[in-house]
DNA sequence: TTAACCCCTTGGTTGTGCAA
DNA sequence: TTGCACAACCAAGGGGTTAA
């Protein structure tokens, strides 16, 4: 297993956080694929699927359908809905190497590709905000069928995941609206506690590895910025706060942190805000990134100033929707180029 | 008066673990 | 090979406040 982990490290930087169980799964099917991609000079990808990858999945599915004669993607990917044909479909999948074919040309673990394919072809996925009528329906159906989201999904044309989460939101007893002083205090304490605990654990680990004292002493003076917001155990913090769910906690913490990093100033306005926009556009343009998933937001933050990365991501989003016409139809690099060529001179002029 | 900004909520997507 | 549960991250939008 250690040998496999070492080999995978090259393709999956976070491999040490993955359980042995999943490592075995990935090793069995993906390691050889990853090596093959490497030979072609293609790196393994994580994060959001790009349009190109989504197109490739659809192409793979269509080719597999014509190869096997299975007559629809729904039958291929949701065969449990067709009990009479299920066995035949299964046999065809094994015979024609379903996994290999479906993941061809996409440098990601096959399992994630399979999930993405199911999402693309799921006939029950309706998106957008739940209406009052839908919420009432959901409560009614849940009372009748319990948490059988598959059945409810067929009745409401929403994905099982969406329904499950919406129900838990409706039923949860968490507070909404403005945070009270007491809640903010609780949150701050909770975050401080988990960060302290984490640092103590890391120090203990370092002591075990007996690092030379010069390497550790300079780091004791301050907490690295990323530790204040990156990879915090939000469900643990949710439990400690008690009255808010983890997503509310996370976002509130980022707001508190941003104000603190900004010397207590609540809002950034005027020339300072303008300068931030200019820096953001320039930095993103310099990075020459094709897809938004490839932006290293922490690096952008380091280059621009003291903000949690989520703040800059939000800033970029707002900039995009307010300044770029037809932004939905444009690729990320087209959006950046538009901002750089059309808006940057305007902002600099205003400054 | 209004554009800019922030707070907050919520739906969508990806990633992991486990089990059958 | 497939399904399910859940954690975590990302995108988007509504609405209130305030500086210009």
What is the straight-line distance between the termini?
58 Å
On the 0-100 scale, what is the average pLDDT? 71
Total domains: 4
Helix tally equals: 19
Tally of DSSP β-strands: 0
Return the string of H and E elements.
Answer: HHHHHHHHHHHHHHHHHHH
Contiguous runs where pLDDT drops below 50 for at least 5 residues? 211-222
Question: What structural category arises from helix and sheet content?
Answer: mainly alpha
Strand content: under 5%
Question: In percent, how helical is the residue content?
Answer: 55-70%
Quick one: biggest sheet?
Answer: none
Q: Any idea what the radius of gyration is?
A: 24 Å
Given the C-alpha coordinates, what overall shape results?
Answer: globular
GO molecular function, one term: chromatin binding
Pfam families: Myb_DNA-bind_6
Protein name: TTF1 factor
GO biological process, one term: termination of RNA polymerase I transcription
Condensed summary:
The protein has 19 helices and no strands. It is mostly helical and 351 residues long.
How would you explain this protein's 3D organization?
By secondary structure, this protein is mainly α. The protein has four domains: 2-121, no CATH class; 132-171, Homeodomain-like (Arc Repressor Mutant, subunit A); 181-261, no CATH class; 270-350, no CATH class. Helix content is 66%, strand content 0%. The protein is built from 19 helices and no strands. It has helices at 2-9, 20-29, 31-39, 51-68, 73-77, 86-95, 98-102, 110-121, 132-145, 149-156, 160-171, 181-209, 213-220, 234-241, 246-261, 270-287, 297-304, 309-323, 332-350. The chain is globular and about 65 Å long. The chain starts with a helix and ends with a helix. The structure holds a DNA duplex (20 and 20 nucleotides).
């Amino acid at each position: 297993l250690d040998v496999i982990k070492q080999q995978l490290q090259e393709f999956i930087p976070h491999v040490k956080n993955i359980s042995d169980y999943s490592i075995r799964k990935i090793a069995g099917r993906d390691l050889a694929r990853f090596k093959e991609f490497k030979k072609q000079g293609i790196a393994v990808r994580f994060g959001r699927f790009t349009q190109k990858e989504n197109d490739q999945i659809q192409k793979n599915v269509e080719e597999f359908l014509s190869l096997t004669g299975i007559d629809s993607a729904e039958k291929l990917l949701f065969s449990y809905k067709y009990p009479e044909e299920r066995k035949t479909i299964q046999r065809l999948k094994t015979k024609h190497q379903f996994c290999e074919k479906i993941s061809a040309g996409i440098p990601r673990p096959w399992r994630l590709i399979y999930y993405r394919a199911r999402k693309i072809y799921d006939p029950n996925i309706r998106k957008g905000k739940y209406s009052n009528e839908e919420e009432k329906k959901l409560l009614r159906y849940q009372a009748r069928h319990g948490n059988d989201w598959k059945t409810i999904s067929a009745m409401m044309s929403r994905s099982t995941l969406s329904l499950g989460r919406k129900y838990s939101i409706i039923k949860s007893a968490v507070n909404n609206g403005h945070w009270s002083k007491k809640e903010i205090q609780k949150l701050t304490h909770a975050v401080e506690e988990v960060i302290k605990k984490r640092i103590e654990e890391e120090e203990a680990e370092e002591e075990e590895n007996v690092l030379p004292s010069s390497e550790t002493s300079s780091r004791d003076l301050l907490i690295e910025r990323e530790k204040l917001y990156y990879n915090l155990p939000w469900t643990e913090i949710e439990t400690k706060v008690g009255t808010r769910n983890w997503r509310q906690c996370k976002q509130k913490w980022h707001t508190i942190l941003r104000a603190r990093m900004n010397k207590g100033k609540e809002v950034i306005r005027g020339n300072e805000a303008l300068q931030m926009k200019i820096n953001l556009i320039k930095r993103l343009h310099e990075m020459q990134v094709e897809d938004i998933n490839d932006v290293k937001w922490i690096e952008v933050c380091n280059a621009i100033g003291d903000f949690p990365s989520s703040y800059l991501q939000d800033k970029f989003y707002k900039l995009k929707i307010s300044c770029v016409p037809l932004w939905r139809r444009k690729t990320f690099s087209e959006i950046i180029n538009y901002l750089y060529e059309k808006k940057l001179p305007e902002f600099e002029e205003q400054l």
